[in-house]
Design brief:
about 180 residues; alpha/beta; Rossmann fold; 6 helices; 7 strands; about 45% helix; globular
Length: about 180
């Protein structure tokens, strides 16, 4: 059964750095436990961001630069369950960054039942042998958005975070670069 670790916090709180550090530590631990594997502890990073403008292009470049070069990277904005089916045979640790971008991508592509897709993602993770880390923004601590699409996004993201957190073996909240374990 797959292990699920959920990492949430505000924008620029240090979630991704914390998740990368944890993924690295977990892959090293896996390498020690299975020294016969040549790839022992392989990390696969699933990036859900899509460069829709210059600012996002820069953010993606920074994220690429900050990841260890030996990690396998899959850049996929949707259909993550399908991606997980293909990559986990070679990976001990999978880092999905980030759930809120995935939700945004699904909404903008016209998907109607985003929460059903999130439940399917969680179910798929439970079928795997890998440890999967999911990074997501905590969206419920700010102001109420002034438009319908933004409110729908906030509501869906909040519910999706709850679905993943309930299913997770461990949950971390990252605030100002400091992680607090809230479950597990």
């Amino acid at each position: 059964m797959g292990r699920l670790i959920f990492i949430t916090g505000g924008v620029r709180s240090g979630k991704s750095i914390f998740a990368q550090t944890l993924a690295n530590r977990l892959s090293k631990k896996a390498r020690l436990l299975t020294p016969e594997r040549s790839d022992g502890g392989q990390v696969t990073y699933i990036a859900t961001a899509k460069a829709r403008d210059k600012e996002m292009e820069l953010r993606i470049k920074i994220h690429r630069k900050n990841r260890p070069s030996h990690w396998r990277t899959v850049e996929k904005e949707k259909n993550i369950t399908e991606v997980l089916s293909r990559i986990t045979e070679k990976s001990e640790v999978v880092l999905l960054d980030c759930l809120t971008l995935l939700i945004s991508n699904l909404l903008l592509s016209g998907r109607k039942d985003v929460l059903k897709e999130i439940r399917q993602l969680v179910n798929k993770i439970r079928e795997l042998k890998a440890t999967v880390l999911i990074v997501s923004n905590e969206v419920g601590m700010g102001i109420v958005p002034d438009n319908k699409l933004a409110r729908r996004f906030r509501d869906i993201a909040g519910r999706a975070n709850q679905i993943v957190a309930q299913a997770a073996d461990e949950v971390y909240l990252v605030v100002s670069g400091i992680s607090v374990k809230v479950k597990g």
